[in-house]
Amino acid sequence: MCQDLDILAKRFDAESKVYAEAVHFLQTAAEPHLVAASRRVERALLAFEKAREQLSQHLRLHQCRQAGD
Ligand SMILES: [Zn+2]
Fold first, then answer.
1. What does the alpha-carbon distance between residue 25 and residue 30 come to, in Å, rounded to a whole number?
2. Cα 24 to ligand 1 centroid, rounded to whole Å
């Protein structure tokens, strides 16, 4: 079990939840909060993309996929 992979996978999971929450917040936000809510979505999306990229890069370079071994 690769510890780095574990950390990156957990971060990816966490960032995807933060992003989903931000999207939900934007969908339900009252008008005065729309700009702030959309900025929050943009920031969350960037963090999510970064986590996704780091995870896939690790899998590509380290070849340590969790394949139940
Ligand atoms: Zn690894």
1. 9
2. 33
Are 22 and 41 contacting, i.e. CB atoms less than 8 angstroms apart?
A: yes
List the one residue out of 53, 69, 18, 38 whose CA is nearest residue 61: 53
pLDDT of 1-47, one tens digit each?
799 999 999 999 999 999 999 999 999 999 999 999 999 999 999 99
Helix axes 3-28, 34-62, angle to 10 degrees: 160
pLDDT for the residue numbered 65 = 77
pLDDT of residue 17: 98
Ligand 1 center to 42 CA (angstroms): 29
Give me the residues near ligand 1 (ion), CB cutoff below 5 Å: 2, 4-5, 62, 64
